[in-house]
Automatic annotation (TrEMBL):
Its main location: membrane. GO terms for cellular component: membrane. This is DUF1211 domain-containing protein. It is found in: Membrane. Belongs to the TMEM175 family. It catalyses: K(+)(in) = K(+)(out). The chain crosses the membrane at residues 9-27, 39-58, 70-91, 103-126, 147-177. It is a multi-pass membrane protein. It comes from Duganella guangzhouensis. InterPro entries: TMEM175-like (IPR010617). Keywords: Ion channel, Ion transport, Membrane, Potassium, Potassium channel, Potassium transport, Transmembrane, Transmembrane helix, Transport. GO terms for molecular function: potassium channel activity; proton channel activity.
Length: 185
C-alpha cells in the first residue's frame, strides 16, 4: 500500500482529536474576566494537550515522509498510536475539570507514556524496510528519555500532581522543536 492513505487517515483522526478537545472548552457564564478564572485549569490542560497532539502530528509526518511503502505491521502500529492519541481529549478534560488532582494527572501521564511507546513501535515498524530512517533515528535516546520522564511524572503525580504536570510540560518543551534527525538524512 502507498503511504498516502495512511497519512490521510492519520491526519483526519488527529484533526478530530483536536476538534473534540476544543469542543470540551465551555463558554463562561459572565462577561467579566473573573468568569474566566474557573476555566484556567481546563484551558492550560487544553494548551498542553494541543501542543502534544501537534508534536505527534509533526513527527508522524517526518516519519512517514521518508518511507515509500506501508506494511501491515505499519498499519497496526499506526492504529495503535492513533488509539492512544484518541484518549488525550478524555484525560485532558478529566485533569482540567478536577483541578489537577492526583489520579487524573497520573492517568494523563500514563496516556502520554503509551503514546510515546506506540510511536516507538510505529517507528520500529517503519524502520524495518527503510535504512535511511533506521540510521536517522538510531537508538532514539530522546524518545526513551521521554518515556522515563513520563514514568517519573506519573509517580510524582501521586503525591504532587502539579509537579507531575510540570514534568509533562518539560517533555513537551523538549519535543516542541521538531526532531531534525530525519530531516538531516
Amino acid at each position: 500500500m502507498g503511504k498516502g492513505r495512511l497519512e490521510a487517515f492519520s491526519d483526519g483522526v488527529i484533526a478530530i482529536i483536536i476538534t473534540i478537545m476544543v469542543l470540551e472548552l465551555k463558554v463562561p457564564h459572565g462577561e467579566g474576566l473573573e468568569a474566566l478564572r474557573p476555566l484556567i485549569p481546563v484551558f492550560l490542560s487544553y494548551v498542553l494537550s494541543f501542543i502534544y497532539v501537534g508534536i505527534y502530528w509533526n513527527n508522524h509526518h517526518h516519519l512517514v515522509h521518508v518511507v515509500t511503502k506501508i506494511s501491515g505491521g505499519v498499519l497496526w502500529g499506526n492504529l495503535h498510536l492513533l488509539f492512544w492519541l484518541s484518549l488525550i481529549p478524555f484525560v485532558t478534560g478529566w485533569m482540567g475539570e478536577n483541578n489537577y488532582s492526583s489520579i487524573p494527572v497520573a492517568c494523563y501521564g500514563f496516556v502520554l507514556f503509551m503514546c510515546s511507546f506506540a510511536f516507538l513501535i510505529l517507528a520500529r515498524c517503519l524502520e524495518a524496510d527503510n535504512e535511511v530512517l533506521r540510521t536517522a533515528i538510531g537508538s532514539d535516546r530522546k524518545g526513551k528519555l521521554s518515556m522515563l520522564l513520563y514514568a517519573i511524572g506519573i509517580a510524582v503525580s501521586c503525591a504532587h500532581p502539579g509537579l507531575g504536570f510540570a514534568v509533562y510540560a518539560l517533555v513537551a518543551a523538549v519535543w516542541f522543536i521538531p526532531d531534525r534527525r530525519i530531516e538531516r538524512r
